[in-house]
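Today's session is about reading a structure prediction critically. Students often jump straight to the picture, but the first step is always the sequence itself: look for stretches that repeat, for charged clusters, for runs of hydrophobic residues. Only then move on to the predicted structure, which in these notes is written as discrete structure tokens rather than atom positions. Here is the chain we will use throughout the hour.
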Amino acid sequence: DRLYNRIADSYVSLFMNISESHKDFILKHYPSALAQSLYSTFCNIYTNSLKYFDEDFKTFLCNLTSEWVCGSTPPPLAWMKWPLNLLEPLNSHNKEDEGRKSGLKLQPQESNIEDKPVSPLF
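Below is the predicted structure for this chain, in token form.
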């Protein structure tokens, strides 16, 4: 209950501090952004369990966060619009068969300084 109360308090604070001109946009995308951040956290922390973070898991996260925030579920397969290459660990798509089947921990690659960050939230 403490975690849920903290999430609720943070959501109310966010809602109260958003400018009116941005409120609809942010609140429309907030459940998906929350689900994506949870998914990315699971994938990057539990790299040996990537094989378990399948379609059912993504659907569960979408439904859960949408029910928390909106009180209803999102359209089916809402997660299909997510930029999975940005949410999952580096190389997870290149070595998907090796890493996901064997549970190998994937090592991050060096980043190029010229790469510009891209927001995975929307």
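Discussion point for the tutorial: The longest helix spans residues 20-45.
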